[in-house]
Specification:
The protein is an all-alpha fold and 556 residues long. 78% of the residues lie in helices and 0% in strands. The chain has a domain of 116 residues: Homeodomain-like (Arc Repressor Mutant, subunit A). 33% of the residues are buried.
Length: 556
């Protein structure tokens, strides 16, 4: 239905443009001006709609009369940037239509990328990803470095949205290195996004450093467009550092810039963390006022992300404490709607980005490596050296195989003797606690960890330290330190070991599971990828999954 509407609207717009071309004549004073001149006049006329319209029409009319596909696309892009939300996608489709006629991969990819960016701004992440992937298909066939890194930047934002922070960090760092050479806005945007990732993985110190660097670099480059966003990001970061008054001050100071840009997503997030700060300062009345603002944006725009889910949990808790069942029921229904939206959006976007982007990137790297090898010409000496190396490698592999079989068998026998999950280590005395965490807080978190392990909540897919902190009504720094101190391991290792130990028991007890593939086993215990599962199993069991199952089948 939406596609039909857009098609009709696009046809209507096409008729309108044709009609304009029939009656519109470029004034003599600018008839011979180049595109750069017209573009500068468009920018200068932002506050004068009559002049702006004149230059917009002149730019597009000139491009069409000269049959210049690149500039026709730019002409539609000029309209897209200045049009109301309900027309942006129409102009984006006009860009794509023109680009396709040109048969230029870079132009087509750029047009689809622009459409994806429109969808992303509307927080329609599934549609944004669809267009990014199409754009990537065309752009990957070109040598246009700018478009390649622009695509990486936008894909990185999808990964950030999904919670794949380490992968997003890697992409944003690549973008920083590239854009630093000549694109100040791209450089500052990438720095800002990198800081957001550091915050989400709990590295608040590095987040602060990145925000401070972003502000300093913006001033060095005479570009203050992102300064408000760096301050805003630091305000949220201060919340996680338990500096609630500073968080309220910084976010409140930055909100006018967010509102001016009509950035409803960051507006909602800002309200949420101001509310959370008041909540932790024991001022629930002020907190609830801001939580309600988040709900208004959700009603109007349908915007939600995983950490904002807690907004509704706190509203439910508040109205329950006030014995107000009507409001409590209202926000319970809202929370159910939030969960439904998050589940459907994340499942779709997560599946496509791994299947169609990550796999393609790996195949591209493989092809580059193969091409590099094809171009190399080995002389006789190198060829002989390779043969010798291969022979020695085979001998080494045979030796390692025999040694591994012996080690694997010993480890298998040890695992077979164990009858319960071995991840839980002997608890250290709580009195011998952690210096900077209150003893009661430590005891409460340890109790929640025991219940978390007992109820097998570790099997949840894509569970992160941030999600666990939200579930425990704590923060990531506390959870991380307590797990490290009382379970003697990092959070990721702790989670992986719980999953693997649980799977070992399942494989020992359930013969049917021994027929599962690694992919199915990974799904069963909540791993986001087969590779991560295989690595975690080997790290914990000291043998591959295939060997363990083979030995179980022999025992059977």
């Amino acid at each position: 239905m939406i596609k039909k509407y857009l098609l009709i609207l696009s046809l209507c717009l096409g008729d309108q443009v044709c009609a304009q071309e029939i009656y519109f004549k470029i004034p003599d004073t600018i008839r011979n001006k180049d595109y750069d001149y017209l573009f500068e006049r468009i920018k200068e006329s932002e506050n004068d709609p009559v002049k702006e319209s004149l230059y917009l029409q002149s730019f597009l009319s000139k491009a069409k009369s000269e049959k210049n596909s690149q500039e026709i696309v730019n002409g539609y892009k000029n309209y897209l940037r200045r049009s109301p939300e309900n027309l942006k996608l129409v102009y984006a489709d006009s860009m794509i239509y023109t680009a396709k006629k040109s048969m230029d991969n870079a132009l087509i990819g750029s047009a689809y990328l622009s459409k994806g960016i429109v969808y992303y701004a509307q927080k329609k992440h599934n549609y944004a990803l669809d267009n990014y992937l199409i754009a990537n298909n065309f752009i990957s066939k070109t040598n246009d470095k700018y478009l390649i890194y622009k695509t990486k930047y936008n894909i990185a934002h999808i990964k950030y949205y999904l919670g794949f922070y380490d992968e997003a960090i890697s992409l944003f760092r690549e973008c920083i290195d590239y854009f630093k050479k000549g694109d100040s806005r791209g450089y500052l945007n990438s720095l800002h996004s990198l800081g957001l990732c550091y915050n989400r993985i709990g590295n608040y110190g590095l987040c602060t450093e990145t925000n401070e660097k972003g502000i300093a670099e913006g001033r060095r480059l005479n570009n203050d467009e992102m300064e408000g966003y760096f301050n805003y990001s630091e305000g949220i970061n201060q919340y996680f550092r338990s500096n609630y008054a500073a968080a309220i001050k910084k976010i409140t100071y930055s909100l006018p810039i967010i509102l001016k840009n009509k950035d409803f997503a960051n507006e909602a997030v800002g309200y949420f963390y101001i509310g959370k700060s008041y909540w932790d300062l024991k001022n629930p009345q002020m907190a609830i006022a801001y939580f309600k603002k988040v709900d208004v944006i959700f009603n109007d725009k349908g915007y939600i992300r995983p950490d904002l889910r807690n907004n509704y949990e706190l509203l439910i808790s508040y109205f329950k404490s006030k014995s107000n069942p009507d409001r409590q029921l209202y926000y319970i229904e809202k929370l159910l709607k939030v969960d439904s939206i998050l589940n459907s959006r994340y499942r779709y976007v997560s599946g496509r980005i791994h299947k169609e982007y990550d796999t393609k990137e790996l195949l591209a790297q493989k092809k580059k490596a193969e091409n590099l090898l094809d171009k190399r010409k080995y002389n006789d000496f190198i060829f002989t050296s390779v043969i010798v190396f291969l022979f020695l490698s085979v001998l080494f592999l045979i030796y390692r195989h025999i040694r591994n079989k012996r080690v694997y068998r010993q480890r298998f026998d040890e695992l077979m003797k164990k009858s319960e999950v071995a991840t839980k280590l002997e608890s250290k005395n709580i009195a011998n606690g952690i210096e900077d965490i209150n003893q009661d807080t430590v005891a409460a978190v340890l109790k929640q960890l025991e219940k978390f392990e007992k109820d097998k909540k570790f099997l949840e897919k894509d569970l992160t330290l941030t999600k666990l902190a939200v579930a425990f009504d704590s923060n990531t720094r506390y959870i991380s330190k307590i797990i490290s101190h009382y379970r003697d391991k990092k959070f990721v290792d702790y989670l992986n070991d719980l999953k693997v130990d649980y799977l070992i028991i399942l494989l020992k007890e359930d013969k049917m599971m021994r027929n599962y593939t690694n992919k199915a086993l990974a799904e069963e215990i909540g791993f986001s990828s087969t590779q991560r599962f295989a690595t975690a199993f080997f790290s914990r069991a000291k043998m591959p999954t295939s060997y363990f199952i083979e030995e179980l089948l022999k025992e059977q």
